[in-house]
Each structure stands twice: as C-alpha cells, then as structure tokens.
C-alpha cells in the first residue's frame, strides 16, 4: 500500500493553515494595538508612556508588514522545478536508468526520478505532496501550501525571522496586561471579549515563540553549513559537507551578495543574473574554491 498517494491531501490542510495565520495576526493586532497600546497612546498624559506606546505600535506594524511580505512571497514563489530544456541538454531520461547517476560536466552527478521520469539536477528531490521534483528541496511546508526550495528558501527564512520577532514583541508587550488579567477578571473591570482576546493572543504568541525558536536555531545551523533539511540525512557523517563553502559564502548562496537586499524578500537583478545557485541547477562545491 502506497501511503504517499495520500500526501496530496496536505494541500487542502495548507489552505486552512493560511487562514490560521491570518486569524492569529488578527487576534494579535486587536490585543496589542486596538485593545492595549492605542488607547494608551491617545489617552495618556505622560510623555514617556505615550512615546513608548508610539514606539511599540510603530515596531509592531513594521514587523507585521515584513512578516506578511515575506510570508506571501514564500507562498507565491515557485521553489523551482526541473526545466524542460534540462532533460534534453543532459541527454534525456531515456539514457539514464532508474536509480543510477552520471557525471555531466559542470552539473556534477545527476540522478533520475522514476515518478517524474526525468533527470534530477544536484540537490533536487521529489516532493510527494506537490507531485514533482523540486530544485534544492528543503521540505514541504504545510503552512505555506508550497515547497521550500532554491528560489524561495531566503523568503522562508525571512518569514521565520520576522515572525519570531513579531511574536516575541507581542509576548513582551502583552505580559503586563496578562498579569493584570486575573485581578481584572475577579473585579469584572474589563469586558469578557477584551479579556478573552488578550489571553488568546498571549498564549498563541507564546506558543509560536517557543516553537519558532527551535526552527530558527535549526535553520541557522543548516544555513551556516549550506545544508538542506533533506540533506541532513545524506551527509553520512562527512567531516565537512561538500557544499560547505564557509559561513560567509554559505550565507551569500541563499541571501545573495547585495547587502541592501539581505533583509528584504527579494533579490537584486545582479544576483539573479550571476548567481547560479539561485537558479537551482548548479552549485559550487569546496573543490571549486579550494586550491
């Protein structure tokens, strides 16, 4: 029985995840801005408190914009699939038997996908959910209804980064109100709806912070060694991964060489035109840079 044929059902679950993301953002916005800090900003007579409220609201909106920009860029960016011309130029699938690989010049060792009936460039893997081969596949993410691969890995990392910062901010600025929740609930000094949104927002953001911390640490480790989640199981205890070019070059392989674009979910034209790794077909190895 092939259980992988049920994997396509994860796409349906993914659309509910998008709605969940929007719902969490909405609840957090109401709790942090509408219910807590905006009233302080417009009603406070203390300059310092008003300035703090203005700063929190500004940072919240900035991180929210970057979070949503990175998120939807990840969702709508194709991670990369094997182009039609690649099979023809590399000799076609007919000359490669299933389970074999061959050396094809600059492209290194090629594999063959029995499901797609096509050759696979280096670091390419078949996704059972998307039903296709994905270039430099990291994993299929149900939260974005998409694979994370060569062309959207940077955007995914930025999504994790800005989401972690946003949820951490929410937890910090909601903590005083959360502590006061119990006394307000006893005195019935606040509306049930306001209290419920406050508790829900705090608990959800705290849960996201704790879970995202693990993902951020894991992907920072992968980024520093130029490794994908799939490749963690392929390194076979190697002392140093063949695609590990050093921390600086590993970072540039994902984020590009233009520093002005590092924190933005987009690439400069020069990086897109000149960096082969962003195309997902050819990747430099240690042998290319070591004497």
UniProtKB/TrEMBL annotation:
Residues 110-235 form the Palmitoyltransferase DHHC domain. GO terms for cellular component: endomembrane system. Its main location: membrane. The chain crosses the membrane at residues 12-32, 52-72, 155-179, 199-223. GO terms for molecular function: protein-cysteine S-palmitoyltransferase activity. PROSITE patterns: DHHC. It is an enzyme of class 2 (transferase). Keywords: Acyltransferase, Membrane, Transferase, Transmembrane, Transmembrane helix. Its EC number is 2.3.1.225. It catalyses: L-cysteinyl-[protein] + hexadecanoyl-CoA = S-hexadecanoyl-L-cysteinyl-[protein] + CoA. It is a multi-pass membrane protein. It is found in: Endomembrane system. The DHHC domain is required for palmitoyltransferase activity. This is S-acyltransferase.
